[in-house]
Specification:
The chain has helices at 29-47, 51-67, 69-80, 84-109, 142-153, 167-179, 197-202, 215-227, 250-262, 279-294, 314-329, 386-394, 409-418, 451-455; strands at residues 10-13, 20-24, 112-113, 120-127, 130-134, 157-161, 187-189, 208-212, 231-235, 240-244, 272-278, 333-336, 340-341, 353-354, 357-360, 377-383, 403-405, 425-426, 445-446, 459-466. It is α/β, with parallel strands linked by helices. It has a 7-stranded mixed beta sheet, with helices on both faces. Strands 7-6-5-8-9-19 form a 6-stranded mixed beta sheet, with helices on both faces.
């Protein structure tokens, strides 16, 4: 293959039917160069704009999302399979984030005067320039907006390398910025293969990189950005604990726990994955939890009754199946589910469906004990004390989110202080929101998205001292 040739086509496939929706030829080297050059050219112009102009752009993007919400959500559901109601919620959440950063971005980036032994001491926040965003398919709008809204509000320009199976959504996002009046080059899509990414990261016109994805992808991108000495933010995998202690509101813990594990067909980095339940309430919790998981409606993501849709690809479904079968072969109890299912279109349509599953009696020799289970599978652990619950919760290489259920104030304080995670939610499920920083520790990543902390990640935090 010559340097100017691209790789294999990027295929967008309907997960509910297995049918090809559209195929895209990756950009060749000439097209990538055109887009990098445009980003580099517009970056200083956009950095010189005022906050009011940037806010106006973000608000206009939000208005487009709100005005076209059902159509945009329809594309998301068709391309990656999440239930239509959840896709509509994702679009609305993105619009809210654009509005929030439009309203608050300036206050987060206003010069801060510092008391120094001089006539003036300042901390000022200046944009870095073109930022490469490498994003996954599971929340094809929200994952991008978590980066794009604060980065563009800060005066940066964005280049999006999206997951290949959501290329249509990638182009939709670029078009939203165009129609909102963004200058050409402020936000561009790069339809490229993984093999083209290292060269883009190494390009001196790229000033920073952000990635949401697997630990393996994070290691690779982190190494490439480190070799080029570029700022990087990594939001990687999670195996979030959902801890239920004796004083918990059990009814609410069960219903929220089911939602926390099964929304987006379990394909979420911050989904509750390990349910760690105190033995005093374990029987009651498990009985109710298994019953509710087993009763979930799986099927056509456009059917209003559907609560769990297909997995995103055949490979994703097969990976889940392999993890469950490995646990079964090592003696785990499959309390419900535990098998793939024929989709609503019948056996002639290759939809990627797997029944919501609950697994108990987990031991350390099972893959599910250490690997991230990215699908509708919940893992149950019984513990005899709050101390044991903490040990199990922290006994993983991941440290993204965590949820603890207790009405005891001392226990709440103990778990907030000692859980090894970027986020602790007490008596609620882990969610991302513009107001709070989002990210993890350990192999769950470095850096933060959202909030005042996220908007400053892609800024030169410059000290100014005047004699």
């Amino acid at each position: 293959m010559s340097p100017n040739q691209a790789g294999p086509p990027l295929a967008s496939v309907n997960p509910a039917t297995g049918e090809l929706l559209q195929s895209f030829e990756p950009f060749d080297a000439a097209e990538v160069e055109t887009r990098l050059a445009l980003a580099a050219r517009v970056a200083p112009e956009w950095a010189a704009t005022g906050f009011a102009d940037r806010a106006r752009l973000l608000i206009t993007v939000a208005e487009l999302l709100e005005g076209e919400l059902p159509d945009i959500a329809h594309q998301v559901t068709t391309e990656m399979g999440k239930p239509f109601a959840q896709a509509k919620g994702e679009v609305a959440k993105c619009a809210n984030a654009f509005r929030w950063f439009a309203a608050h971005g300036e206050s987060f980036l206003t010069d801060e005067e510092m008391p120094v032994d001089a006539s003036l001491g300042l901390v000022t926040y200046q944009p870095l320039g073109p930022v490469l965003a490498i994003m996954p398919w599971n929340f094809p709008l929200w994952q991008v907006v978590r980066f794009a809204a604060p980065a563009v509000m800060a005066g940066n320009v964005g280049l999006l390398k999206h997951a290949p199976n959501v290329s249509r959504t990638s182009l939709l996002l670029e078009d939203l910025f165009r129609r909102a009046g963004a200058p050409a080059g402020v936000f561009q899509s790069l339809l490229v293969g993984t093999d083209q990414v290292p060269g883009i990261i190494a390009d001196p016109r790229i000033k920073a990189v952000t990635l949401t994805g697997s630990v393996g992808a994070g290691r690779a991108v982190g190494a490439q950005a480190g070799a080029a000495i570029k700022k990087v933010v990594l939001e990687l995998g999670g195996s979030d604990p959902f801890i239920v202690l004796p004083s918990a509101d059990l009814d609410r813990a069960v219903s929220v726990g089911v939602q926390a594990r099964m929304q987006n067909t379990g394909q979420s980095c911050i989904a509750a994955k390990r349910f760690i339940v105190h033995e005093e309430v374990a029987d009651a919790f498990i009985e109710a939890f298994v019953a509710q998981v087993g009763a979930l409606t799986v099927g056509d993501p456009f059917d209003p009754a559907t609560e769990v849709g297909p997995l995103v690809t055949a490979v994703a479904r097969d990976n889940i199946e392999a993890l469950v079968e490995d646990a079964r072969s090592h003696g785990a109890s499959i309390l419900c589910g535990g098998q793939r299912m024929v989709g609503p279109e019948g056996p002639d349509k290759a939809g990627y469906f797997y029944l919501p599953t609950v697994i108990g009696d987990i031991t350390s020799d099972m893959r599910v004990a250490t690997e991230e289970v990215f699908g509708p599978v919940a893992l149950l652990f019984r513990v005899g004390s709050a101390e044991e619950a903490l040990a199990v919760a922290n006994g993983t290489d991941f440290g993204l989110g965590s949820s603890v259920w207790t009405r005891d104030p001392d226990e709440q304080q103990q778990f907030v202080a000692r859980l090894g995670a970027g986020q602790v939610f007490v008596n609620g499920m882990v969610v991302s929101m513009p107001e709070l920083p989002f990210g993890g520790i350990k192999t769950s990543g470095v850096g933060r998205e959202l909030s005042q902390h996220g908007i400053r990640e892609f800024c030169n935090i410059k000290s100014v001292w005047v004699a």
